[in-house]
Specification:
heterodimer; A: alpha/beta; two-stranded parallel sheet; 3 helices; 8 strands; elongated; B: alpha/beta; 5-stranded mixed β-sheet
């Protein structure tokens, strides 16, 4: 009996759509990427209410040891020695853009005195909109 | 006579496109950080040199101790008890100021907890937002004493 010759298939992985997937991922990352202006590592307080913070906001961060860093929202944050420097920075930013939003990024264990000095400096600099950066509070935190 | 011409290849070379694409993906994956971009809004009042005088008797004072203990109008209170305590007072006078006054040594998170709780006035059936005030130490020293 004559057997039908078997057709040999070359094994291959279909890669035609690989470039599409790759570019889809690139577009996703390009749209979602935000360059952090403040990289201070803090444990944020948790709140139930949380609102989206406008992009390009100025940052004032306070670490657990009370060190203060400031950023105008465009440049990387820099360490300042006293709350008075927050006042001069904030006054300069507000002079350029009176509607600028400031974000207070303070560690949950930071002493209120330090946060109070920063808030007072922002008040004196005529800042109007401030956000207290927080993490989401969940039922487990209650 | 048939001429054998070397025709230039009219294809765009795409063999390295996937390499470039994956290089970009790796770059974005390494540099992307997922950060908290949400928080509690905390509108600051005008820094007025001559603010309206608020009598202590007219307001409700919420003091926060360094250990997180709350003293509301001189009485110790739990966080969830504050708005039920305020509710009858605010129904009589919706503009009644509620002053949050943390001790200078109080951890910041306790102040945020209280502020967050007072901002949830709707959950307790109140019709208007609570008039919350957080005076700074400078304001307390300048205007209260």
């Amino acid at each position: 009996m004559k057997l039908k010759a078997t057709i040999e298939h070359k094994p291959n992985i279909p890669t035609a759509s690989m470039a599409d997937i790759a570019f889809l991922l690139i577009i996703f990352f390009m749209l979602t990427i935000t360059f952090e202006v403040d990289k201070t590592q803090v444990t944020l307080p948790k709140t139930t209410l949380r609102y989206e913070i406008p992009k390009q906001s100025a940052y004032v961060s306070i670490d657990p040891d009370g060190r203060i860093r400031v950023s105008d929202g465009t440049e990387q944050s820099a360490l300042v020695s006293a709350a008075d420097e927050v006042l001069s920075m904030a006054a300069g930013v507000i002079a350029m853009d009176p509607t600028k939003v400031f974000v207070v990024k303070a560690h949950g264990d930071a002493e209120w005195l330090r946060v109070d000095e920063v808030i007072d400096a922002l008040k004196r600099a005529k800042v109007r909109d401030v956000y207290l950066l927080s993490d989401q509070r969940t039922v487990d935190d209650l | 006579m048939k001429l054998d011409r070397d025709r230039p290849d009219d294809e765009i070379p795409t063999s390295s496109m996937a390499d470039i694409a994956f290089l970009l993906i790796v770059f974005f994956m390494v540099t992307t950080t997922f950060t908290a971009t949400r928080g509690l809004d905390f509108a600051l009042p005008e820094d007025d040199d001559d603010p309206p005088v608020v009598e202590k008797e007219e307001s409700v004072l919420v003091e926060i101790m360094p250990n997180g203990e709350l003293i509301v109008d001189q009485d110790p209170m739990q966080l969830q008890e504050i708005i039920p305590y305020l509710k009858p007072k605010l129904e009589r006078n919706p503009k009644k100021p509620v002053i949050i006054r943390p001790d200078i040594a109080t951890p910041y998170r306790y102040m945020v907890q209280v502020y967050d709780e007072l901002r949830q006035w709707e959950d307790y059936g109140l019709e208007q937002p609570i008039n919350i005030s957080v005076p700074t130490q400078r304001e307390i020293q300048s205007f209260w004493y």
